[in-house]
Design goal:
- The protein is mainly alpha-helical.
- It has 2 domains: 84 residues, Multidrug-efflux Transporter Regulator, Chain: A, Domain 2, CATH 1.10.1660.10; 119 residues, Multidrug-efflux Transporter Regulator, Chain: A, Domain 2.
- About 9% of the residues have low confidence.
């Protein structure tokens, strides 16, 4: 019996569900609409997914779930990976699998949670209702995130919108909620971020000149400080949690 070389969108959903129980057909179609995956189509219009497509989907979903990475950054990472000469990860294999054995998923770029400060936020523009629907948070919790300074709508042509960073914050708040952590508990992160930003600006900005090169050095210095701070907080949090577990 000949084994089909490609999968349907339903087959892909079943393959992903164990690791990503919340993934839906709509989510996969959304990623396709955003240009992050490009499945082939049959003459009748049905999508054909190969192992490369499945590997790419897993990678994207992990970046979103584990690193809360916006689509703009994910797209840039994938484009850079392919531009560096790596084999494209969204194309079907040149030959069909032999003896019913599916090809091995291709390698993908390493996952990193560190986004540079000078990387622009993606072009996502969500209304309040769209943010509520996309994040899975109740509307009142989104309002609380705004109240505590964790979300801040951006003005645009007389209206307001939320970007990808706002969506990631809302999703983190949703996941915190599973452990009983509410938006009011999260306001400490706003205070910490503001105090750190003030400290780093005092260390870097006074030494910044007016030239473009000086500005680039200042941005790089702030990036370095942010990364060191992130690592320090991880270590201190781990040490503190270990103390609690040993009591």
């Amino acid at each position: 019996m000949t084994t089909r070389a490609f999968m349907s969108i339903g087959d892909v959903l079943k393959s992903l569900r164990e690791e990503f129980p919340e993934v839906t057909v709509s989510k996969i179609r959304f990623l396709e609409a955003e240009g992050l995956i490009e499945p082939e189509r049959t003459p009748s219009g049905y999508r054909k997914f190969y192992q490369q497509d499945l590997a790419r989907l897993r990678y994207i979903l992990r970046l979103q779930r584990d690193n809360f990475m916006p689509l703009k950054i994910i797209r840039r990472k994938l484009e850079q990976f392919e531009a560096d000469g790596a084999e494209a990860v969204s194309r079907p294999p040149a030959t069909r699998p032999r003896d019913g054995v599916a090809p091995v998923e291709p390698p993908l770029p390493p996952i990193s949670a560190e986004d540079d400060l000078d990387t622009p936020v993606g072009g996502l523009h969500l209304s309040f209702d769209e943010l509520v629907a996309a994040s899975g948070l109740p509307a009142e919790h989104v309002r609380e995130l705004e109240q505590y300074g964790l979300l801040d709508a951006h003005p645009l042509e007389g209206s307001a919108f939320y970007d990808e960073d706002d969506l990631m914050i809302a999703k983190i708040a949703r996941d915190f909620g599973k452990y009983g952590i509410e938006p009011r508990h999260m306001r400490m992160y706003r205070h910490f971020a503001d105090r750190e930003a003030g400290l780093f600006q005092q260390a870097v900005v006074p030494h910044r000149g007016a030239s473009n090169d000086s500005k680039r050095r200042a941005v790089q210095s702030l990036n370095d400080l942010a990364k060191m701070s992130k690592r320090l907080k991880q270590l201190l949090l781990r040490a503190s949690l270990r103390e609690h577990l040993q009591r």
